[in-house]
Specification:
Keywords: Oxidoreductase
Helix content: 25-40%
GO molecular function: nucleotide binding; oxidoreductase activity
CATH class of the largest domain: Alpha Beta
Family: Belongs to the Gfo/Idh/MocA family.
Number of domains: 2
Protein name: Myo-inositol 2-dehydrogenase
Distance between the termini: 28 Å
Strand order of the largest sheet: 11-10-6-9-8-7-14
CATH superfamily of the largest domain: Dihydrodipicolinate Reductase, domain 2
GO biological process, one term: NADPH regeneration
Strand content: 15-25%
């Protein structure tokens, strides 16, 4: 994902120059550096500290986000961090407090790029216009071809499901107040996690959202969203690339991953971030506080998962708890089989 961000900034965004890139795998860093004309660094810490770097985009492993964002704040450098802002509520809260202590224009932006997807933006606008009356329920799906390695049932929520968490609250302009987690029969294709999962999200306005997250759906990458209202429904158009009509049958194709589906969203998000930096105005992207709120909801879902699927209230004002005795700050979230 980091390489794709660098390509977007280099080839599609005005007002920005990709000065430096860093990756734990030096060959990847050098390949992207050659492609973008950037300087490759051996570590994120070196890149962040470089006097030639004015702002930082973080697309590293989730577990590295908190330390890297904190390093940017220490040097007063604006930072766009891919979701999640950090793996735990405690880490997110610390970043919010660190930013607040600095004051001025917030430095942290969080990469919930679906907010910039033209279809989601039109959906939000039509809901605001009352196109289907009062929303009652949302039916959403998040499906990948194959799960990424090094994950478990909890990371399905904190890395993939967190998109649905943010976009649901954003569409309805209402915070998620309670959640529950449910497990259908699990696929035999991935023994590391429960897959698929069914997430129930109830916002403060009473709307219930159901989300199926299926990371090994095999048939293609697909995101669905339908809002049922008192006077009708409105949904995202199907994301297939083409439809072939032949021999009394219609066949449609799907993207293999997120890139063709959300290319415009990533480009528009990056341009909005750069425009805010060059004009010295507040970033229109998701805030650190919104990133914290999304992780609160994700942790509530993991709690529901680990306690049999019961409903868990989300207290968006509750301070985070203490770190775990082993110092992991709650990162070792369990999962079921």
């Amino acid at each position: 994902m980091g390489a794709e961000h660098a390509r977007i900034l280099h080839g599609s965004i005005s007002g920005a120059t990709v000065t430096a890139v860093a990756d734990p795998a030096s060959d990847r860093a050098h390949a992207v550096a050659v492609e973008t004309g950037a300087w490759p660094f051996n570590s994120a810490e070196e890149l962040i500290a470089s006097p030639f770097v004015d702002a930082v985009l973080i697309a590293s492993h989730d577990g590295a986000h908190a330390d890297q964002v904190a390093a940017c704040l220490e040097l007063r450098k604006p930072v766009l961090c891919e979701k999640p802002l950090a793996p735990t509520v405690q880490e997110c809260q610390a970043l919010v407090e660190q930013q607040n202590a600095i004051g001025g224009t917030p430095l942290i932006s969080v990469g919930f790029m679906r907010r910039f997807h033209p279809a989601y933006r039109e959906l939000k606008e039509r809901l605001a216009e009352g196109a289907v009356g009062q929303p009652l329920m949302i039916l959403s799906s998040h499906r990948n071809v194959k799960s990424y390695p090094d994950g478990n049932s909890a990371s399905t929520i904190t890395n993939s499901g967190i998109h649905e968490i943010d976009i649901t609250a954003w569409l309805l302009d209402s915070p998620i107040a309670s959640v529950s987690w449910h497990a259908p029969k699990s696929t035999a294709l991935d023994k590391t996690r429960q897959d698929p999962q069914l997430l129930h999200l109830r916002t403060a306005d009473g709307v219930l959202t159901t989300v199926d997250v299926f990371l090994n759906a095999q048939y293609g990458y697909e995101v669905r969203c339908e809002v049922l209202g008192e006077q009708g429904s409105i949904e995202l158009s199907a994301p297939q690339l083409t439809t072939a009509n032949r021999a009394l049958a219609a066949t449609r194709t799907y993207a293999a991953d997120w890139r063709p589906v959300f290319a415009d969203a990533y480009r528009l998000q990056s341009q909005a971030w750069i425009d805010a930096l060059t004009s010295r105005t507040r970033s229109p992207l998701a805030t650190a506080e919104e990133g914290l709120q999304a992780v609160r909801v994700a942790e509530a879902l993991v709690q529901s998962m680990n306690t049999g699927g019961g409903t868990v209230a989300v207290d968006n004002n509750k301070p985070s708890g203490p770190a775990s005795p082993d110092g992991t700050s709650g990162r070792n979230l369990s999962h079921v089989h």
